Amino acid sequence: MSPPVYDWDADEYLTSEEERMIDELEAMLRPPALPMAPYPPKSVLLASGETMVVRQALVEEVDLMLKVIQPLSWVTRDFYDIVSARLFAELLGWKTHRVRDEYCLVGVIDGVLAGIVNGRLFDEKHGVSFHTLTLKRGLRVGSHLFASKMEHHIEYLGQDEVWIVAESPIGHRRWMIEYPLEKKFEVQHELGGAPAWVLTRDTYFKAKSRLVTGTRPVSDELLAKSYPLREPDLRVMLTQIEHTLEARV
Question: Considering the chain, what is the average pLDDT of its residues?
Answer without folding.
Answer: 91
